[in-house]
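re: ur question from yesterday

yeah so i grabbed the chain u mentioned. its 447 aa long if i counted rite. heres the sequnce exactly as i have it in my notes:
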Amino acid sequence: MSVIISLPEKVKYIIDTLMQAGYEAYAVGGCVRDSVLGRTPGDWDITTSASPYQVKELFPRTVDTGIQHGTVTVMEGKEGFEVTTYRIDGEYEDSRHPKEVTFTSSLEEDLKRRDFTINAMAYNEAQGLVDIFGGIRDLEQRVIRCVGNPIDRFTEDALRMMRAVRFAAQLGFVMEERTRAAITELAPNLAGISAERIQTELVKLVVSEHPEEMRTVYETGMSKVFFPEFDRMMETPQNNPYHCYNVGEHTIAAMRNIRSDKVLRLTMLLHDVGKPVCKKVDEKGVYHFYGHAKAGAEMANAILRRLKFDNDTIARVSALIVWHDSMPDLQETSVRRAIHRVGLRQYPALFEVGRADTMAKSSYGREQKLAQICRYEELYEEIMAKRQCLTLRELAVGGRDLIALGMKPGREIGNMLEYLLLHVLECPQDNTPEILKNLVKTAQKSE
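ran it thru and got these structure tokens back, copy pasting raw so excuse formatting
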């Protein structure tokens, strides 16, 4: 197959400079794969027969980003391009880093150490595509296959097992049989991988076009290592007329029903994580999961912390899970109270979560629930359009105004502001300085 890739000018310049100096140089890895697929590469990596020090001599601005492993970043303008010397990896001792690397003059030896065939292709304009391990074939057949023996590749770096599933999710590919079998055999080795690295791959999988690949993470035994709660979800049935899947399959369907956003997808992944621990069975054999939202939010908080997520993501996901199943009375006053209670920041995402959850259930009661969500959203939008007061910040009076009325700084003022806010949530038209100050004066007289 003849493949022509349009190299960016800066990449072409780096490759040409290396070749004119007598070295080999190619674009390599994911940028070649994405170019063949018609995708825009996120970055361009270059591999070369030149040593790191020879690379540094050829370019005026370089950064030693990983010189002990052969990598130098060449700066062209404000852009950086990683240039790595052909290398052979030594023995891996920690399921991540080789004990030592040996530089080589052989492109084939360098490509041989890479993870998957689709990532082991190189390209330059002089030689065209170098595809020693059948990467083009596997792209055409939509297959994820290890280079060489998959046991060796996954033993070298256990995170490659998560990367295999992540690539399948991003590209819509399937895993070759030996590759999948090796993951099932070596899944326990993920215990030696840092939470930060697992988190990175998990997020890429979850926000991909195929988040249902979480099923593969479970089936191969990987989730048992870093996310055992998901195994319990996959093994918890829901004998309830509102459901047609077990908890895990419902979760997967819910992820597919919501747009590709990190917080929203993580919310759907974890929104029912509390169900296995809250399961109750009534006298008719029907399952109920009372309190699962609160329990799930607490569990999600712990899971996300364990996987080293940032505090903002943890807070947003946990809050959406707490309220994902709530429905106020569909009147303006009740919705104002709900917005104040839930927190303005959770809107309008909460409606997306509700719809995704509902669409992942059985058809029983679905139309009614969707209609309720629609009305809830309409009332929210009307309230926002009217710019009604929903928080202390939006009150027409503040602490200084109350001090001017003779109140002492401290808890007394905080309590009075909360009292005024609750009044305004009931009567939004009263959010004026005059009316609120009169309410304060009346309250003071009654004390």
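noticed a couple things. The mean pLDDT is 94. also The radius of gyration is 29 Å.
anyway ttyl
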